[in-house]
């Protein structure tokens, strides 16, 4: 997905595995192999990691659907690839 600078982004992720109760969101900057956890929806709780609380919002329940909403991108330095991953939420 490509968005022009100044545009907000809403990405949805869903799964159909009834044993999975968590959806995690990661970002990977352009030209980097490092992935960073942004946040996750687990059961009925949503968590956004501290460095990203001003920039991202995570919604959903983790049981089947989650969304990632980003603030308006300012330019090429905000170029990233976003990933979602579903898991069984064992802690």
Q: Can you tell me the number of structural domains?
A: 1
In the CATH hierarchy, the third-tier topology is known as Immunoglobulin-like
Spans of at least 5 consecutive residues whose pLDDT stays below 50 are: none
Measured as a percent range, the helix fraction is: under 10%
Description:
The mean pLDDT is 86. The chain has strands at residues 9-14, 22-29, 36-42, 45-48, 56-60, 65-70, 80-87. It has 91 residues and is an all-beta fold. It has one domain: Immunoglobulin-like.
Q: What attributes characterize this protein structure?
A:
4-stranded antiparallel sheet; mainly beta; 91 residues; 3-stranded antiparallel sheet; globular; Immunoglobulin-like
List the helices and strands and how they pair.
Elements: E1 9-14, E2 22-29, E3 36-42, E4 45-48, E5 56-60, E6 65-70, E7 80-87
Antiparallel strand pairs: 1-6, 2-3, 2-7, 3-4, 5-6
Compact description:
The protein is mainly beta and 91 residues long. It is built from no helices and seven strands.
């Amino acid at each position: 997905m490509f968005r022009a600078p100044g545009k907000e982004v809403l990405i949805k992720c869903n799964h159909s595995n009834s044993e999975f109760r968590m959806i995690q969101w990661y970002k990977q900057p352009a030209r980097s192999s490092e992935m960073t956890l942004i946040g996750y929806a687990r059961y009925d709780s949503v968590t956004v990691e501290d460095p990203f609380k001003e920039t991202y919002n995570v919604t959903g329940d983790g049981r089947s659907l989650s969304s990632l909403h980003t603030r308006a991108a300012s330019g090429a330095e905000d170029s990233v690839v976003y990933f979602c991953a579903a898991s069984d939420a064992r802690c």
